Amino acid sequence: MKVDVAKNLSKVLEQLPEGVSLVAVSKFHPKEYIEAAYQAGQRIFGESHEQELRVKVEELPKDILWHFIGHLQTNKVKYVAPYISMIEAVDTLKLLKEINKQAAKCGRVIDVLLELHIAEEATKYGFSIDDCRNMLKAGEWKQLTNVRICGLMMMASNVDDENQIAAEMNQAADFFDEVKRDYFADADYFRERSWGMSQDYRVAVRCRSTMVRVGTYIFGPRVY
Ligand SMILES: *Cc1c(COP(=O)(O)O)cnc(C)c1O
């Protein structure tokens, strides 16, 4: 293995304040890399392709907590529903309903995050803040008793300007406070602010992230 996964992992963990959890993003990396991180104590891993994840789940320890962090097509939900620990990137009400339906079939309640689109890039998925606010206001989600909305997730723009990155993350954090106040004031489980990747996780922890998703910094560049 060319990369010292354990060392990189501990470097990231050192920089995370108390209460911020690490999702080790292992997409496109072989299982040996995941095993190395697992040996070093890491338990939460992030993947973004259903088929790749399915193979890894079969081969790797059963106490790994898998987070689905990519865009999940509704027709793939049924495959991840039996085992997924958290679906981070819920970007439509339709997807939320499908997760609810498949979770019910498995007799589970699945933890999810709502993905916000705040970044300037046009290609990224997610609710605009207005759409998210309207979706929550409409209230249909309250009937979905087999999903548990645990917070918000976002990706900042892929830019060098730290001020812009921080401004986007702070916008998400402010919106989190609004949603918490309006809908989840008494729900302890609504507490996750998932932002920060290899490039910007240090900014993210200053912008109230509770969950960073770091891949390249730990495992090296992905080979597609
Ligand atoms: C790939 C990915 C990451 C990790 O990105 P790195 O730059 O490798 O740290 C984080 N979040 C999401 C949603 C991703 O798809």
From TrEMBL:
Gene3D superfamilies: Alanine racemase (3.20.20.10)
GO molecular function annotations of the record: pyridoxal phosphate binding
Residue intervals of the Alanine racemase N-terminal domain: 5-221
UniProt KW keywords: Pyridoxal phosphate
InterPro entries hit by this protein: Ala_racemase_N, PLP-binding_barrel, PyrdxlP_homeostasis
CDD domains attached to this UniProt entry: PLPDE_III_YBL036c_like
Modified residues (N6-(pyridoxal phosphate)lysine): 27
Cofactor(s), by name: pyridoxal 5'-phosphate
SUPFAM superfamilies: PLP-binding barrel
Domain of life: Bacteria
Xref: PROSITE patterns: UPF0001
Family membership: Belongs to the pyridoxal phosphate-binding protein YggS/PROSC family.
Function: Pyridoxal 5'-phosphate (PLP)-binding protein, which is involved in PLP homeostasis.
Protein name: Pyridoxal phosphate homeostasis protein
